């Protein structure tokens, strides 16, 4: 038999074993749920994890919560220090840090990977999960015990383990006396008011404001940034979520409870880079004192933030202005020197709207990043032209906003200030 044919058949049978394991989990769940109830439970679990779980991963979480007992484990686990390059290893380890998943693309292949820093009493290693195995990272928490079966020792020094088609990686259902000897991660869980500049920490907080996803280029590569504002009752802080974490941040809604592992405070703002991750807060997160952002009608909206679902009756105007910091004069064109003699200008983008819901119609306004996200504008876009092109298209659309109300300095009437676009109804803002 040709080697290629043998490898293909081996992969096929291994896949059948893995798939069979999933079928057994589903069959056990169907002993407790009807098919419709199971579908609802899977969707609910996926919603809890902000869409980060596949259907299979969601069922595995449900099976774990239902207390299904794993088959007797007769695997002989070896210490990490016994690993030999090019061989397979079975080990019982502690997850010290779970890094943000990444996507990759080369001329030969593309896919996903995620690195988990693991350790036992003999040493530490980097465990690299590939493609469908990356789903496991969504349900692994710091300090969980992991059972590794037949992971490949890619590099011996420093030790690097890789999942393969025949590998099995799962979270241990119950701690044992052996696990007491496994080292624990030293990263503390801190309140926002306890964070120290440059010190890594985990935080649990409620998302109270979210800015739109930004795309940028750095050293010839495309990067992403999403800034979210968090509150845990002790303080509020902005968090800058980069690349993969930026996309995860966009899946959460204002009011959701979230956890950041591996956050670092830099210049008064949390940074969540490739070495950290953003995920749903675990149960018992203790954020009851931090109320979720309320939903209100436009008529009931006051000076505090709330979520409103409104109809866009009209886009009145949109401008990108330059404002003199000295005298406050505004102009659509930045001149080298203001009439007052100042050369210090700031930029201001705004969109003026007419909004309505069942409680009435009100004048609305959005500024800077919120206005640009609402209009789908990018840096340098001619807002006058863009507004003309989109005015008819946006009229009549329904949008969910994070907003507050204030008294207009011009008309003296109530004015709605949209701070962020949270979602569209039957409309793709891109």
Report on the architecture of this protein.
The chain has 4 domains: 3-65; 80-181, OB fold (Dihydrolipoamide Acetyltransferase, E2P) (Beta Barrel), CATH 2.40.50.140; 204-280, Nucleic acid-binding proteins (OB fold (Dihydrolipoamide Acetyltransferase, E2P)), CATH 2.40.50.140; 306-425, Nucleic acid-binding proteins (OB fold (Dihydrolipoamide Acetyltransferase, E2P), Beta Barrel). By secondary structure, it is an alpha+beta fold. The protein contains 6 helices and 20 strands. The strands form 3 sheets. The chain has a 5-stranded mixed β-barrel. The protein has helices at residues 3-29, 35-48, 55-65, 244-251, 368-375, 383-394; strands spanning 88-98, 102-105, 110-120, 123-130, 145-155, 160-162, 168-171, 200-210, 214-218, 221-231, 236-242, 257-266, 269-272, 277-280, 306-324, 330-331, 345-357, 360-367, 398-407, 414-425.
């Amino acid at each position: 038999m040709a080697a290629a044919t043998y490898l293909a058949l081996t992969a096929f049978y291994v896949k059948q074993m893995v798939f069979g394991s999933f079928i057994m989990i589903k069959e056990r769940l169907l002993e407790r749920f009807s098919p419709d109830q199971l579908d609802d439970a899977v969707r609910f679990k996926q919603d809890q994890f902000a869409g980060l779980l596949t259907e299979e991963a969601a069922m595995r979480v449900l099976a774990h919560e239902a207390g299904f007992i794993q088959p007797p484990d007769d695997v002989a686990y070896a210490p990490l220090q016994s690993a030999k390059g090019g061989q397979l290893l079975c080990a019982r380890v502690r997850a010290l840090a779970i890094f943000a998943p990444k996507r990759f693309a080369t001329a030969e292949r593309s896919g996903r990977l995620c690195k988990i820093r693991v350790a036992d009493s003999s040493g530490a290693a980097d465990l690299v999960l590939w493609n469908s195995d990356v789903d496991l990272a969504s349900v692994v928490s710091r300090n969980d015990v992991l059972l590794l079966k037949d992971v490949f020792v890619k590099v011996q020094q420093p030790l690097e383990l890789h999942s393969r088609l025949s590998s099995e990686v799962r979270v241990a259902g119950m701690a044992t006396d052996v696990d007491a000897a496994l080292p624990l991660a030293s990263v503390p869980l801190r309140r926002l008011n306890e964070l120290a500049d440059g010190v890594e920490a985990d935080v649990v907080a409620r998302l109270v404001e979210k800015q739109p996803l930004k795309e940028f280029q750095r050293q010839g590569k495309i990067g992403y940034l999403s800034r979210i504002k968090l509150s845990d009752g002790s303080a509020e802080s902005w968090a800058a979520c980069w690349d993969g974490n930026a996309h995860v941040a966009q899946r959460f809604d204002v009011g959701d409870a979230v956890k950041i592992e591996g956050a670092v405070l830099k210049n008064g703002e949390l940074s969540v880079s490739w070495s950290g991750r953003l995920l749903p807060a675990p149960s018992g997160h203790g954020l009851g004192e931090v109320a979720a952002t309320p939903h209100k009608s436009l008529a009931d909206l006051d000076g505090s933030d709330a979520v409103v679902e409104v109809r866009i009756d009209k886009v009145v105007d949109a401008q990108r202005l330059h404002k003199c910091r000295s005298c406050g004069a505004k102009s659509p064109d930045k001149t080298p020197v203001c009439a007052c003699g100042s050369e210090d200008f700031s930029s201001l983008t705004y969109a003026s709207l007419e909004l309505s819901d069942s409680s009435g119609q009100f004048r609305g306004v959005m500024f800077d990043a919120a206005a640009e996200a609402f209009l789908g504008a990018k840096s340098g876009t001619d807002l006058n032209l863009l507004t003309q092109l989109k005015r008819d298209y946006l009229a009549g659309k329904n949008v969910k906003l994070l907003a507050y109300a204030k008294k207009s300095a011009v008309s003296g009437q109530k004015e709605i200030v949209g701070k962020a676009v949270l979602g569209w109804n039957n409309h793709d803002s891109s």
